[in-house]
Amino acid sequence: GGGLWGRGGGEEEEGEAQVSSPPKSSIRTTSVTPPPRGMSTPPPSQPTVRAVAIFKVSVPGATSADKVLVVGNHRVIGEWQPSTAPVLSCTGNGDYEVTVSLPMDASTLEYKYVVVRSHGGAETECIWEDEVGNRRIVLGEASSGMLLEVPDGSFNANNHAGGVRLMLPVRELSRDEQLGATP
Fold first, then answer.
1. For the chain, first and last CA: distance in Å?
2. Where are stretches of biased composition, namely Polar residues (predicted)?
């Protein structure tokens, strides 16, 4: 008797096969459906930081009230806006440095150093390097995942000490160094 499906004879088995078939196919289809665009996340092995750079410059005549900035063409160095650029710390004797994490989209950086000098109150003066062209770093595969030293010599002088130096892989930095803390 095949009264269950409203069909008679051999159609009953065929009807049962059709009833069990849709759940199997929907499970199979669901398991291979890629996530919607914009909702996928990069694999965990994909680094978000290309390299870490330590910018160094000497600013003769700078005072403790002066701020020294590295300002350039990428968001991590202010997009040419001193108000959003990283401030260097004085390490003594007019020498300044700052550590900046460079993201994967930072492949070529152009930048200058800027001294922001206070004249009392809210009045300030931005002194840009104007006697040298834009300083430039090209980050290739060799620099990926590395700590880079960028010894740029003196402010407003084209006397940097040999360009960018690869120091060590970023993963070997201590937690404090990665956070930009100074010893």
1. 87
2. 18-32
Q: State both tokens at 105.
A: 């989209």
**Are 96 and 14 within one domain?**
no
Q: pTM for the full model? A: 0.66
Could you report the per-residue pLDDT of 80-128, keeping only the tens digit for each? 999 999 999 999 999 999 999 999 888 899 999 999 998 877 778 999 9
CATH number at residue 61: 2.60.40.10
Q: How far apart are CA 179 and CA 43, in angstroms?
A: 24
- Provide CB contacts within 8 A for 110, sequence distance 6+: 72, 73, 134, 135, 136
Question: Alpha-carbon distance 78 to 142, whole Å?
Answer: 25
Q: Is residue 41 part of a domain?
A: no
Dist. CA 36–CA 26, nearest whole Å: 18
Please tell me whether residues 24 and 64 are part of one structural domain. no
